[in-house]
Amino acid sequence: MKPIQPTELVFDPALPLEQACTIPNRWYTDAEILAAEKAMVFGRHWVVVGRFDQVSRPGEYLTCHVGDEPIIVLRGEDGELRGFFNVCRHRAARVMTHECGVATKLRCPYHGWTYDLYGQLRGVPEFEGVENFQREENGLWPVHVATWGPLVFVHLGEPAMSLEEFLHPLGKALEPFAIDQLRFYGRQVYDLACNWKVYCDNYLDGGYHVNSIHPALAGVLDYKNYRTELFNYFSVQSSPMKAPDAADDPSAAMVRTGPAAAYVYLYPNFMINCYSGVMDTNTVLPLGPERCRVIFDFYFAPTNDPTAEHRYAQSMMVADKIQAEDVAICEDVQRGLHSRAFTSGRFSVRREAGVYHFHRLLAADLKGGSGMFSGD
Ligand code: FES
Ligand SMILES: [Fe+2]
């Protein structure tokens, strides 16, 4: 028996939301697509690589990968923040291998070449007699860095716009949450068996899955008034908060308070979740076509209250439970994307404008590649 196919769904970013469908399932499983995303999405936008507090003092550094590129960001003795490809000019080993730390010089662990905090090559052991070799031409390759509030960004290419322009008007959207006054408290890392975009799609569905997947969270959100607003490179989902009903799980209500919640998605892979005095950020890193890592950083308003530690731990536990619910559904979706019964889906006009916004940005970036990124 042939399955009923009323219309053939082809991704067309020119269609209005009412007529649009999602990017095709192949984009969630194909290694070639992921390679293109690393080059044309992660390689061509400002992306978050860490926190300001990790590199606030001279000598502090953090390492990361953007796409597949090893990167180091460090604060020089002159107080300037600089970024470099963390790739030794001798044999391409990573020069610094710790996630973060403090250093007065950068020493490659392979053969001991050293670079200063300006990226200049300084020490080159046993290189006497090498001809046509200039130390000053063998420094680390620089990369653009910029900061915004508590976040450090890197741009691998030549930025078409400044970070400020890229983020405009995010500051205004987050003003009520005074995020500059929050302090980093802790990190949780999750590895998922799904494509990185499955996690983003799930985040961006305008609260569509909250009632069914997150019963405790649903108790504190005023779902009828949950809204999504779209901007150039980010979207903001916001919802007024409400008191939970007696039958609701009370755990979320104790640590998710205030007049409203805001969920910011910053293209391509970063999220900021704000409640009163509480923020967590999520960085989604592709690990393979069907694997990703999500890093949660938790921030809280500083206080002298002796019970604060307990509340922070409780807040992180609530986030952990919500994340477990999201992980389960995302991994289920990833399996479904292999089915012959699914190639693409439609959008809820009321809820899912954020998902389509993401798919359009992605398609626009990949379009520069080749015909392989048409809707098939
Ligand atoms: S690869 Fe760095 S010193 Fe050889
Ligand atoms: Fe969720």
Summarize this structure briefly.
The protein is built from 9 helices and 17 strands. The protein is of the alpha+beta class. It folds into 2 domains: 112 residues, 3-layer Sandwich (Rieske Iron-sulfur Protein), CATH 2.102.10.10; 189 residues, Naphthalene 1,2-dioxygenase Alpha Subunit, Chain A, domain 1, CATH 3.90.380.
Please tell me about this protein's structure:
The protein is 23% helix and 27% strand. By secondary structure, the protein is α+β, with helices and mostly antiparallel strands. It folds into two domains: 47-158, Rieske [2Fe-2S] iron-sulphur domain (Rieske Iron-sulfur Protein); 171-359, Naphthalene 1,2-dioxygenase Alpha Subunit, Chain A, domain 1 (Alpha-Beta Complex). The strands form three sheets. A seven-stranded antiparallel β-sheet has the order 1-10-9-4-3-2-5, with no helix packed on it. Strands 11-17-16-15-14-13-12 form a seven-stranded antiparallel β-sheet. Strand 16 (278-288) and strand 17 form a beta hairpin. It is globular. The two termini are 24 Å apart. Mean pLDDT is 94; it is low at 369-376. Bound molecules: FE2/S2 (inorganic) cluster and fe (ii) ion.
Q: Helical element count? A: 9
Oligomer: single chain
SS-based structural class? alpha+beta
Cα distance, first to last residue? 24 Å
Largest sheet: 7 strands, antiparallel
**What is the helix content?**
10-25%
CATH top level of the largest domain is Alpha Beta
Instruction: Give the number of domains.
Output: 2
**What is the residue-averaged pLDDT?**
94
Strand content: 25-35%
The parts where pLDDT drops under 50 for at least 5 residues are 369-376
Q: Give the strand tally.
A: 17
Q: What ligands are attached or bound here?
A: FE2/S2 (inorganic) cluster, fe (ii) ion
Task: Look up the CATH topology of the largest domain.
Answer: Naphthalene 1,2-dioxygenase Alpha Subunit, Chain A, domain 1
Q: Secondary-structure element order, as H and E?
A: HEEEEEEEEEEHHEHHHEEHEEEEHH
Rg over C-alpha atoms, rounded to the nearest angstrom = 23 Å
Q: For the record, what is the CATH homologous superfamily label of the largest domain?
A: Naphthalene 1,2-dioxygenase Alpha Subunit, Chain A, domain 1
CATH architecture of the largest domain: Alpha-Beta Complex
Largest sheet: spatial strand order: 1-10-9-4-3-2-5
Shape call: globular
